[in-house]
Amino acid sequence: MYIDGEMKEVKNYIPMIGHGVTSIMVAHLAIKNNPEFDTQDMPSTCSRKIVTDLLKDSLQFKGLVITDAMNMGGVVNVDQCGLKAAQAGCDQLLMPVDEKKCYLTY
Question: Exposed end of the chain (fewer CB within 10 Å): N or C?
Answer without folding.
Answer: N
